[in-house]
Amino acid sequence: MNDEARHRDSEAAERTHGNLRALCVSVACLAVALTSACARETPIPAGTIIVGVRQGPNNLDPRFSTDEASQRVGQLVFSSLMDIGDDLRVKPTLAETLDNPDPLTYIVTLRRGVRFHDGRELTSADVVFNYRQYIDPAFASPWKGGFRALASVEALDEYRISFTLKEPFAAFPIQLVSPPIVPAGAGEDFGTKLIGTGPYRFVRFDVDDKVVLAPFPGYFGGAPRNSGIVIRVIPDDIMRGLEVRKGTVDVVVNDMPPDIVHQLEADGTATLVKAPGLDFMYLSLNTSDAVLSDRRVRQALAYAVDRDAIVKYLRRGLAREASGIVPSQGWAYEPDVKRYAHDPARAKALLDEAGHRDPDGDGPLPRLRLVMKIGTSDEVRLQATVIQQDLRQVGVELDVQSLEFATLFADVIKGNFQVVQMQWAGGALVDPDIIRRVFHSQQVPPSGFNRGRYSNPDVDRLIDLAGGSTNDADRKRYYGEAQKLIAEDSPYIALWNRTNVAIAQPALRGLHINTVGNFESLKDVTK
Q1: 278-499: what CATH class?
Q2: pLDDT at position 311, please?
């Protein structure tokens, strides 16, 4: 980023701060309006934790949702057979044990006495119902790709379930983390009347406004310590900051721009809780596009982006540069991959090689034009503006289109994009099997998450070998080689991994945030 660009970003940050200070003048008026609106609704019980989020859920049925907002609700309402431990390894949750008597068989023994929110006990029938859906050819779900190796699932008795694989698949246990368990018989309308085994019962979802959850005293992990959770959708970054400043929002987790985090911390309004995170920000390049199918163009774009400046100035250090989708904390992380330091000269040379020569030297005409689709938050738009400036320096004109999330996500699933700026939530990245879900040629939606239509037979072969390996040493080696090839091909431009930040009212107690940034920990928060 040159000095002029930094100056513009500094001015943008100052405008953000100025807007925040100016809007504080109208806090009293806003409070009156909010009070009047709330009077028409069922009162929120004292001790309820109000959580501010950037966007609302896209689909509350966990069998079909992959967006972060929906998964956050799911973390509070549902439970899974397995979960992620502090060491980023899978651990039993609804399962009491997971046994692997032979390479093709996994036996789950359920905890006894686990209750759904309607009072019915969780049994093997519920588990069989869930996983038979994912191997049913007629059942369309983005999670199906995780169960391609599953041949059958059978109840051995009321509390034991046998999973039989078609072939050895060492990553099978991580597939039991997401999606969570829904009750047997859950139909197409389940997303409007959620019933889970998690710490909170679903009360209602007011679209584009809030999700209301009540504590479930019968939660097998212990009743929540608060009176409930209200997840308030506040799309505007400045307004979300104002709500924290007013005290009408208790906590925001990973949904506050770094500039506003800095401002609220500096004036003593809120308490910050931090932890190294996994959330991964990236640009996905559609490799089926006529221009972006050329690896040299993709590499040129990667060299053009100044990640260091983004982390230092836009993120205010609340992130670290990423080299790929596997986070550095992951046990299969491969450090020895091709990296793309900011190098405009190298980017221009690669574009020349690919036939996209500068048509007028130092004149205004670009080498090529691309369209990048992004979300609507100020934080996302500012980052897109910086990337747009970086690419302009190497002769690439980037048309940035800001779309509401539902529209953006629909386009991404259909492959209707050239470049898209998106983010993976950390929980999805714990196991290196995410490499298969994102980069294997057989994982194009709706079967998986290969939204950029990337295909490399050598990568497929290495991923298949890793999936069929029976020990972590071999898996690490195969996944490492795959990461090297993917970095060379650059279907993703890795930007950064987030530092998890919860910004909260000082009166809150019991707030903690783990590497995954899971909302389930909110059950321990009191005020």
Answers
A1: alpha beta
A2: 96
